[in-house]
């Protein structure tokens, strides 16, 4: 009996890989955008770099 195959799934905004619902996200599943802390940090860092160097980000 496999129960995990029926869990909700989303796609990570940063790495574009699918990830599944976790119990720790039960209260905030609608706000979850990233599959891991690493993706969240790298997205935050890339936004910060783009805001510091707007000309380089466009190229």
Automatic annotation (TrEMBL):
It comes from the Bacteria. This is DUF2256 domain-containing protein.
């Amino acid at each position: 009996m496999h129960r995990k195959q029926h869990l909700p799934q989303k796609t990570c905004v940063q790495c574009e890989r699918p990830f599944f619902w976790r119990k720790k996200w039960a209260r905030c599943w609608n706000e979850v955008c990233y599959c891991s802390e690493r993706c969240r940090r790298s997205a935050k860092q890339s936004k910060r770099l783009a805001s510091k160097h707007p000309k380089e980000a466009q190229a």
